[in-house]
Amino acid sequence: MRLKDPFSLKAADMTKRTNKPRKPRDEESSDEVSGLTCQHVSKAVDLNSVKKAVTSSMWSMCSDCLRERTMIDGEPASGHDILVCLKCGFQGCSQSESQHSTKHHQTLHPESHCITISLGTWKAWCFECNEELSTHCNKKALAQTLDFLQKHSVKAASGNTFNTPDKATGGKGSTLVPVKGINNLGNTCFFNAVMQNLSQTHMLNDLIQDVKEKGHKLKICPPAESNVGALMVTLPSPEPLTSAMFLFLHSMKESGKGPVNPKTLFNQLCQKAPRFKGYQQQDSQELLHYLLDSMRVEETKRIKAGILKSFNNPTEKTADDETKRQVKAYGKEGVKMNFVDRIFVGELTNTIMCEECEHISTVKEAFIDISLPIIEERVSISLH
């Protein structure tokens, strides 16, 4: 159980656990975020085999559906229905009647082919444990495989080779982001309009480039009145939506012709805000709010995990009052350092003065945008 008081973490963030026995975790396998580690990862994840299989087969298509020529709504099973086996790289459907991903697990040695990653949600699932796994745990093979699949998804969508930014310039050498088209997924003009603007926000491109990697260092300096010194924390890997945003922005900066397919990012956003599912016309401002707020929540969660790790992940029982006070102080200041707040969030100060005693009170509120009324000028028209 993690230290909840300093951050007021919700119990709903904890994933459901089954009663199956599992190996006890060692001290390094702390699970700061969501999901679980499992005993099958070492046997069921083979990055090299996944790379060979994925690069030599049709991306985001069920291999068995293609071989059997099985059609779902007139097309082969693809997209969010596909699960990738992390042992051999097999891509199988999960929502059709065929259930090829499940059959693949059952046909082969169960414990060796039991872990998959969804290409729609980027969540890892273990058939043997029957529950979701954390891709941010200390099992490097799982996190590295997820990273490869996400990069390959961008490459397959854009048709270009995935190149990492120039280390000599820190990814900031090119301030001019080329203007590229974005595929319409079906009444998603509202989404594309927002993404075109964000792709041209240079500060966003720079900051998200800085924080994208696992192990990024963040220095937190609380105010003097808190009586705590500066703290250098090491952040875990970004959460799924933030990772998808980075991959999208990177694909928009890549050279090459052809529009960018935003399906991965859009699917991740729909996981956070189901109201945008269904390919109906939506409001761009509402989408921007949901997108920024969801990334802000992810980055806040990431920073909190880094702070707790700096204190050796204290629990309610092990943390003393001084540790709780320090964690709370660093958490209050640290959450303001996420890239969303630094770019998009402003502070509105409301000042109220009492007419009788003339006491002045101020209230500060954060905002992403301010709605201003548009007053129409009344023009009198004389009829002749």
Order of SSEs: HHHEEHEEEHHHEEHHHHHEE
Structural class, judged by helices and strands?
Answer: alpha+beta
The share of residues in helices is 25-40%
Give, in spatial order, the strands making up the sheet with the most strands: 2-1-3-4-5
First-last Cα distance: 81 Å
Strand residue percentage = 5-15%
Mean pLDDT: 77
> Quick one: overall form?
globular
CA radius of gyration is 24 Å
Query: Stretches where pLDDT falls below 50 for ≥5 residues?
Result: 1-35, 160-175
Largest sheet: 5 strands, antiparallel
Q: With helices defined by DSSP (H or I, 4 residues minimum), what is the helix count? A: 12
Tell me the number of strands: 9
Domain USP: 180-384
Keywords: Hydrolase, Metal-binding, Protease, Ubl conjugation pathway, Zinc, Zinc-finger
Domain UBP-type: 36-153
Region (Disordered): 1-35
